[in-house]
Give the backbone structure.
Amino acid sequence: MTTEQGEDATAGTAVDEKEAARRALEAQLSWEDPEQEPGQPCPCGSSDGLHGEECDCEEGAVLIHTMRIPGSTEDVTLWEDTFACTHGCNEYIERVTLPEAPWGVREQAVDRRGVRYERIRLFPGIVHGQEELLPGFGER
């Protein structure tokens, strides 16, 4: 079952899937950039989190926001942010909820036998490390 509209996980209102998918792709973007300098704004646009905080491993070491990927098999608004030390000694993961940028849509579908089931459908281009654990994965 393919739909043109998805369900906004927080407001319960229909949202344009193309716009939601665009926001998810922007949120997912890998920011690994060896040239990223400490003290520069975080690529995610947020001032929250660990980005720019000092790391205790070495003088001048700071944490930079390097990646954001889907962080749940149930909540389409939950993402995992990875922060890495500029000197390579530490890496941290923080979970963040982004209701304005869901990585997929929860929907009802019907299999080829006519049986209804719930699934989470990833937006095109979104990479989920545990896709096979998503509700409805592999159903047709």
